[in-house]
Here is the input.
Amino acid sequence: MEHYKDFTVDAQRFPHFADFAAEMKAQGIHLVPIIDAGVKIEDGYDVYEEGVKNGYFCTNQDGTPFVAGVWPGRVHFPDMLNPEARAWFGSQYKVLLDQGIEGFWNDMNEPAIFYAEERLKKTFAKIEEYNKQNLDISSFAAFTGMVAELSNNENDYKLFYHNTKQGRMRHDKVHNLFGYNMTRAAGEAFERLEPDKRILMYSRSACIGMHRYGGIWTGDNHSWWSHILLALHMMPSLNMCGFLYEGPDIGGFGSNTTEDLVLRWYGLGIFSPLLRNHSAKGTRRQEPYRFKNKAAFAGILQLRYLLLPYIYSEYMKAALHDGMYCMPLAFAFPEDDFARRVEDEVMIGESLLIAPVYEQNARGRYVYLPEEMLQVRVKYSESNRIETSVLPAGHHYIPVELDEVVFFLRKGHLLPLAKDGKKIQSVADVDFADLRLLAYAPDGASYEYYTDDGETKDYDKPEHFVHITLDADGNAKSDRATVKVEG
Here is the structure.
């Protein structure tokens, strides 16, 4: 962005942005810019001027455009509940699509309000009064409280209005629909602008139904151990609401993280459809290469690539068949009373149970297995060395070191993995048609494997569904993919 203006490129920093985007793509790096909910108020800025001219912004009670402060300073909010304004805003994404951008991240779209201009003016006037006073404990508390209440003040959401098909609507009555309709604006625009191409889209704010247009990340969390567990809880909850494409800020957004926290968080995050490490300005930097144990971080990210054939297959089958990619144990084992009480383990697809470590200094954790399963221990600091052992149903203490991931494979199930003959640097390096199978199938098993080109929209072609069978002697057959059996 140029000075936080939506749908702009800073010409000084990126004088040849389309060439830069193409160069990054050639290296397996796809750029995903932020689009904020607030449009900067600035003469000469075409998005602002078009919005004012056509009445596309939310208004005050008197019909004048509502002014709030967000990243760029003073902004107007596009009226996302007005169909004409929504179509206009969606059309703006073309500016970046034309320069090679294939993914977007809608942000600040609750919408967040740093301040409402009306409240800010009253605050400044009051500060002038306080400036002439001797601030005692009561007046000082009132002063600091007044400033603290500027951001996201509940009453400010009662100040502006939308023009909807049902008539004029005060924002606080329809607050949860704003982020939904901002991403809807993008999703509907992509169908017009790129009808045959998938465009990545995820949003910070949403409500039920927005999964039709994009996914979400789970908001501005903190570098707290408890937030690993919170991220785990949110995965099946969001799946129940239709949101399959989701994930947290790995390592935590706010606060200062630690190396062990980030490693443990990746132990969960590699199973999320959306995997990203993200942190706030001013916090301790947490990119994996900044830590001492680079081999462990490289290994766990390599494991993510190896798991992608299974993750993508289970994700797409859930999306196409209205299922769940991630579900509580009770959904998979409805007759098991104890499974209903387990809230720190989940099923990933049809084959895997995961039980990540989420407590500081823990060298392992207790795990409940509703049935006999194959324990899979991956030592990712040792080139993803895999050890397996069969565990009976019941309660177990499972040691898990910092450089390990442990998960569990159901009996009679298969786990398709990418081959790891070379270091995988990006998804483009993953061969989805040449697989190895991790199996726990003493009596044989079958698996419906989904794979496509990942770019076009012919999702339900029959040839995308590959049938893999394994007989009791360990011989694998497939109608299309090449498979090698392990385990």
Observations:
- The two ends are 50 Å apart (CA to CA).
- The chain has a mean pLDDT of 95.
- DSSP finds eleven helices and 27 strands in the chain.
